[in-house]
Structure formats: C-alpha cells, structure tokens
Amino acid sequence: MVDAFWLDRDVEQAAAWLVDRHVTSSVFECSMVLTTAVQLNGYPESDALYFTHPDNPLTRWAARSPDNWQYLRDYTEAAHEEWRYRWDHDPADRHGCWATVRSLDDRIVLDLEWPIEGRQGPPQLTGPWTGDDYVDAYRYYYANEKRHLFEWSKDRSMPVWIPEYTVDGGGRDRDT
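Given the sequence above, the corresponding structure tokens read:
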C-alpha cells in the first residue's frame, strides 16, 4: 500500500524517525503520489511522470488541495534528504523518483484547478490504529505494526515515543 508515515508534524523530524526501509520507500511511493495527484488535476500528461494509485486515499488527499500536495512534497523532500544523509549520497545526487517530482513546472502546478483551498490532515492509513490526531495514529501504527522493520542506520535510532505508543500484542503487519 502507498503511504506516508506522519510520525511528526515537522516533516524533517518525521523523516529522521523513519526506519531505513521507509526512508527509501517514502521517496519512491510519495513521488508517485505527487505526480499522479497533479495529473488528476490537469497537469499535462507525460511518459516521464508516474501515474499510479489514483484511488489511493493518500493520492486523493494530495490531489484535493495545493496545500495538501505541498505538505506531502515537503515530507517527500525531507525523506529524500534523509536518504542522502543515511547512505552518504553526494549532495548533488538525486533519487530518480525525486528527480521526477523536481521536473514538474511549479507555475503549472500552482495554476491547476484544485478542488479546495487550505490544508487538511492526511488520511490515516493505519488499519485499526486510529486516533483523534493523525500523528498519534501513525505513531501507534509504527510502534505496533512495524516493529519487525526497526532498523536505523548511521546515528539514527528508535524514536523516544515508541514505548509510550506500544500496546501489548502489536506486530501483525509483515509486508511493508
């Protein structure tokens, strides 16, 4: 499933808390969502752009408003910077998926016919782990369903909030 892991409202902090596997998958999946979202709103079709998962709740959310789209773009950029940091990529290196997002014409993106203005909270794609706040939902989800993926490179380590969000019996999701 395509998802972003909103572990904090500060996207740089959220990216720093991602497990290694989700750093790369966030750049890949969210880049696809971003290019699909703009095409749903009339961005000119191109073989160079990804178009996938148009009915995914994250894609629909990103396509709903320019502010939603920008928040996801900021998250994806933070994940991309984290990708560079964790694996010592040169500052000039760009992940191919992020390069595709960067190829979008910002003027055209801003001039698209977005359905609404303003930013809404992202969808909670967290299975049974929901909350009044999307950050809480994602922290519960991460602490309980993603434990099998807990691995952080370089100087990154398990987020300090994990014990607070861990519930006995967690750990059912084994795919991503």
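Residues 11-124 form one domain. Try to locate this feature in the token string yourself.
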